[in-house]
Queue: 4 jobs
Job 1
Amino acid sequence: MIKPTETRYQKVGRKYVPVSAHWSGDHDQMAVGTFRLTYAYGDGGHRYEYEVTPTTAPMAAAMILARVRMEDAIREASKMRPSAPIPYTKKQRAAIAQFRAEMGGMFPSWWTENSAYDISEAAMRAVLEYRP
């Protein structure tokens, strides 16, 4: 869907000139009747959620608050792991943990990762378990 935008310039003769002096720095214009949810998570830091309605605001607020925990849960759920349970020793598990931390996405071919469903489950669980 294409949203109509405010005209900033108009052609006058051979030049384009500004239509108005609306350069206040607040370019975040909203349509009449729309809502925006703002969360200040730190000094000077803001997160915005657009297209929020009074009905969806509570869930959107919960999602903003739990976003960091959701991202951590998704990151943890999406880590590669062996596809078959192999009895690793304590030393091998430590080496694997160090390898994961240092190498990121490079893993042996017999390892696997979680599906999108598993990751979304982890995210939903993070929201439901979040306590500020």
Job 2
Amino acid sequence: MKTIFEALGLVTVIFGLMTHALAGPIGLKYKLAPGQRWVARMLSQSETTFMGKKNVTKTKTIIEYEVTKGPKRGWVSLGARITSQKNEAGESTADRIGLTRIVFRADMHSSGEIRNIRYEGGEQIAGGSKGENLPPEVAAMMQQSANVIAEAWKNAVFWFPEFPEDNLEPGDEFDVTKKMGAGGGLQTQTLTKQVFTLEDVSDGLAYFSVKERSITRMKGVMGGKSDTKSLGKSKATFDLREGMWVDFVTRYRSKVQFGGGSLMGQGTSEVLNVIKYEMEKR
């Protein structure tokens, strides 16, 4: 009987090795198709320490995506709207600042390359929450505010990392570098580098660990400025059958150095951020 169990155990090990070998390298691509609808739940927690005081904020943001035909083969067009954003008290912050009225649009390749990011709906904010006619100078100020809000959120909405052309095996890495910027009253420039490592492939899911490093420089119209350096570690799961991330969890620490003219004064602030995306097809 012992011999039988030993033989069965050996067969199981061999079968497992064969299955892994037959799986071979994997190719990563997004399988978005016209007519699909996706929902992202973005859960974020930020812990800020400044001048010995600690402040913790939590938010839950819902982003809805609609996939339509793209400009050419291999591409789709994405329309995205932030339909809800609430803090830990259940208060809706997105409605208050008009974020739910903005529609984001972009073209996306199956590799994850994003082009032609744009947004609309800011003119509704400039027109007033009830559609009343506002003085031109007030409407212009609200329009600028809407643009700043949209610029700040567009990269969080189209957050999908771009994949390499080569197939991957467990242990392989690929890099994603992003340069982001925004103008207006608050000028920001951000450079982020992520290093993805494929840890495992099992049951149609690819598991990644991610190391991230970024620097952000911000400058205000009144001469205020700040530099932010961040280091992060993430883990992510990609569904190879659906061609979409199941979840993506980032945990990173930042040090913010405030310069002269900043509303925060001069000094250093430390921030711990945890952001989790969860994707679901409707």
Job 3
Amino acid sequence: MKVYFEVKEDWVDAESPDGFISMTMRSHALIALKEAFVEQVLKKQKIPKITISHKELKKAVLERMAERAIEEQTRT
């Protein structure tokens, strides 16, 4: 896997007394690498196609409506 990211200006602490790259650079790079890794893994995942028939949808909606009606009845 190859990951490329840009080093932005605010990632480097120019005022650091020893001139080394700050911990901010390290944390930004780590976040960028994690995001790139997750993105590439998700691209490779095959998500199964889900099909819902009109009949199944109608049944689910009616069941939910009935549940709400029962909840309202028990509250009053």
Job 4
Amino acid sequence: MRTLLTNLHPFGMKFIFADHLWVPYDKKWERIEPFLQGLKVTFVATGIRYSRSNGTSDYKLAFTKVSKLWLLD
């Protein structure tokens, strides 16, 4: 299963680096259940470049920590 993160930006900054990111839903995400739409989270991750089968490349994140912040009003 995968989950969609939107409006990604560095903590404390309003500049958005990515409008969305699909991530694997693993144990790091399970521990902040319930995972509801509008939930704000903070995470520590490393960016990793990968190659697609069509020869293009993109980046993914390797998460080391995920924490729940609050629900949007």
